[in-house]
Structures are given as C-alpha cells and as structure tokens.
Design goal:
alpha/beta, six-stranded parallel β-sheet, 3 domains, 430 residues, Rossmann fold
Length: 430
C-alpha cells in the first residue's frame, strides 16, 4: 500500500490522486464496448442462434439442452450440500428477507384539501433477471441478495443466469424456489434478458454485478431494459483514528481479494496507525495473491491533516463499503453504499449475513444512490381524485400557472370544468 499525505511536499500529488479518484467510474468500459456492442446487436438480431453460439464459446455450454437448469438439478445440489452450509444459507436468507420486508414501501392515501384525495400505489415489476457471477469464486450470496428483495417486492417471474454455476449457487436457487435458471453469462446473457429470445423471454429489469463485459452490456441495453446500476470492482474505505491495525488490515485484505482491480483505502490522521496498517496488510496479503496484487496497485493510506479533512476526503471518495470508529461518526457520513460501525463490524459480515444488500454502488455512484433494495423491484404509482369543490378551490391557481407557462390548453382544461360547475348551479336554481 502507498502512503500519501495532504500536507508537506507530497500534498500536490495527493490532491491529484484524490481528484482522479473522485472521477473514477466507467472509463474502463470503453476498452470493451466495441466487442460488447457487436455481441449485444448479434443476440438482439438473431436470438437463440447467436446466444447459444456465444454460450458455447464463452461459457463452455455443451448444447442447447444444457442451457436451462432443471428443478431436479437444483434440488440435488441442495441435498448434497454440507448440512452446516445449508444452515448458513438459510440463516443468510432469513436475515436478507427480514431486512427487505422492513424496507418495503407502503401504499397510502391522504386528503390535503377537502374533496381532494392523493395517494401512492406500490406495484411490483412483472419480471427481473438476476445476474450471478461465477468466475473466480462461486457467489450464492449474490443470488440471495438479488432474488430475495425481488420476491419480497412480489415480482412474479425471477430469472437467474450464471455461467457455470457452482453447486452452492444451485443449492441457493433451490432454497429460494427459483424456477427459471440458465447456464449463461457475459454480454450475451444481458442481451438475451434485455431483448428476449425464443428460449428466454425478455425481462423488465436486470440486476446484479458482473465483469467489464457484463457491465458494458448493461449500459448498452439500459435504454431498452431497466438496470439497477453499473457496478465496477469492489471498494473499501476505512476511516479511523481508534481502530486496531489488525482489524483494519484484515478488512482491507478481505475486500481486496475480490478482484485485482479492487480499491482499498485507509484514511486516518495518525501517522503511527497508518504505518502499522501498511505493515500488517503486507503480512496478511502475503499468501493471498489477488489481494496482494490489488493492494500493490491500488491500495492507499491517506494521512489527513485533521479529523474534518479525513471526513471530507471520505465523502469525496463516496465508497461502496465504509468503516468508521463508532456510532457518532454516522452523522457526518454523506456518501457511502453501506456503513460498518466499530471494531466488531467486519465488512464481510455485510457480504453475507447482516441483512442489508451487498449489491452496492461503486465508482463514486454512492453520491447519488444506495445499494440494491426492494425499491429496485417496485413502481410507485401516484393517484389523485378531485371533487367539484376541491377543483374549485385549487383549479384557479393551477390555471394561472398553466397560462404563465404559455400552455393555453392546460388552462382551458381546468377552466372548462370550473365553468361547468357554475352552469350546473345555475340550472339547479331554475
């Protein structure tokens, strides 16, 4: 890990580094966009034929008959799983489901003016595609994190896709009762979900993380099919003056082992703690080649001038995962995907079992959105109903606003009804 400071001779370089980190994001996608564009267009145009060709080429699919995973395969994977791991999956699912249920928005109706009813309807999406990576590591946790909030929201059709899914992922699918699961990955899977083929009908929204090709494909289809977010390599920031070097470095290594491109940063005002974390992280990553590669290339320890500057830097970074010292720190956190408070809150607990979703914004997108939630799987439909008296009370104001905007037809629509009220009163007097 590299140590940089905001004071002294290296201050200018530190400012440049922080400026570049603030602007990090989807630049890496540009390198794969031409290839992804061809794949997406090909699957959109030729459907199953192209999808299966790419699945054979990139996913090693043996044949079209192997594309769809049967309920029997998922049940067999669940049965063969170690009982302790089955219990862990059940516990994780319960935690995730409980949090999503608490998060679920509700319909409501209110009457801000006598005779006017306004309200909100909560309606689920009809169908979603859950992308579950299966490259370096099997990720049954990602299936739990994407499918369970969709189930809680009431989505009827949940489609899972994963290239070469591990037995643990198939077992998780059985646990959740997933009925539609395909051995499919990459840009061709995203295209199939977005546009549909003879075998895979299109979905309304695609969620879940993936590699550069998956993320680029999601960006390309996003005008035709809704997506959750463009997720890049995982990120961790620990901002601490009181944590232990062992705990801090353990979390940095844990997130860094996801990907050689992962971003791991420690922000502190204490030079002694900064050097301890660097030394401890080096030892802990010695036998972890992916983490070591990530930390060597992108690992940073930022020595801030004071506590306020450390907090400002943290919010500027808008990290996916953030660890702070104690509950009092929550009040200054403005930008973060998920916050972990105190020495006992190991970040990997959030990856698996705490309950809040681990599908989180990266690349600084925590400035504008949070992690995946039930809100990603519902529509909030507003409703308004006027009585004649309520229209008479508010209509003239609305008509004046319409006329101020030069929208004469808007004003006439309102005034027609207002005149109708007067004429009806006149008739009743006669």
């Amino acid at each position: 890990m590299k140590l940089i400071g905001t004071k002294g001779r290296g201050a200018a370089q530190t400012a440049q580094i922080l400026s570049a980190l603030e602007r990090r994001g989807g630049a890496a996608l540009d390198s794969v966009l031409p290839a992804v564009r061809r794949i997406v267009a090909d699957v959109r145009r030729r459907g199953d034929r192209s999808m299966l060709r790419y699945a054979a080429q990139f996913d090693g699919l043996a044949g079209a008959e192997a594309l769809r995973i049967t309920p029997q395969e998922m049940a067999a994977a669940w049965k063969s799983l170690d009982p302790a791991l089955r219990g862990a999956l059940e516990t994780a699912a319960k935690q995730i489901r409980g949090f999503a249920e608490r998060q679920m928005p509700t319909s409501f109706s209110m009457s801000p003016v006598r005779g006017l009813k306004t309200g909100q309807l909560v309606r689920s999406l009809n169908s979603v595609g859950c992308y579950v990576p299966s490259g370096r590591h099997p990720l049954p946790s990602t299936l739990l994190m994407t499918a369970i909030p969709a189930q809680v929201a009431g989505v009827e059709r949940i489609v899972a896709v994963s290239p070469k899914p591990a037995p643990e992922t198939l077992a998780a699918a059985h646990l959740l009762g997933i009925k539609e699961f395909y051995r499919l990955g990459g840009a061709h899977a995203v295209a199939a979900l977005a546009y549909g083929t003879a075998t895979i009908p299109r979905v309304d929204k695609i969620v879940g993380p993936g590699n550069l090709y998956v993320t680029a494909a999601k960006r390309l289809v996003s005008f035709d099919c809704a997506i959750d977010m463009l997720a890049g390599p995982t990120e961790i920031v620990v901002t601490s003056d009181h944590g232990s070097a062992a705990g801090i470095s353990a979390d940095l290594v844990a997130q860094a082992e996801h990907d050689p491109e992962a971003l791991a940063i420690f922000v502190t005002t204490r030079a002694d703690l900064a050097n301890e974390v660097i030394a401890e992280t080096k030892v802990r990553s010695r036998e972890n080649p992916i983490a070591r590669q990530s930390l060597d290339r992108y690992g940073l320890v930022i020595l801030a001038a004071d506590v306020d500057e450390a907090r400002s830097i943290t919010n500027l970074l808008a990290p996916e995962h953030l660890t702070v010292d104690d509950a009092s720190d929550i009040k200054w956190v403005e930008n973060a995907g998920s916050v972990f408070v105190g020495r006992w809150s190991a970040q990997p607990m959030g990856d698996y079992i705490s309950g809040p979703n681990h599908t989180l914004p990266t690349g600084g997108m925590a400035r504008v959105r949070g992690g995946l939630s039930v809100y990603d799987f519902v529509k909030l439909i507003t409703v308004q109903e006027y009585s004649q008296d309520a229209l008479h009370k508010l209509g003239p104001h609305a008509a004046l606003l319409a006329e101020a905007e030069g929208l004469v037809g808007h004003a006439q629509s309102i005034r027609t009804r207002l005149r109708g009220r007067k004429s009806s009163k006149g008739r009743s007097r006669g």
